[in-house]
Amino acid sequence: MSTENLDGHVHKYMDILQMNIQRMCQLSNTCKAWCVTLISAMLVFVFKDQQWDVLKILLLPVGLFYVLDAYYLSVEREFVVLSKVISKKVQEGTVQMSDVFVIHTAKRLTRICLLLKAMFWSWSTLPFYGTIGVVLLWIICRNT
Question: Quick check: 71 pLDDT over 90?
Answer without folding.
Answer: no
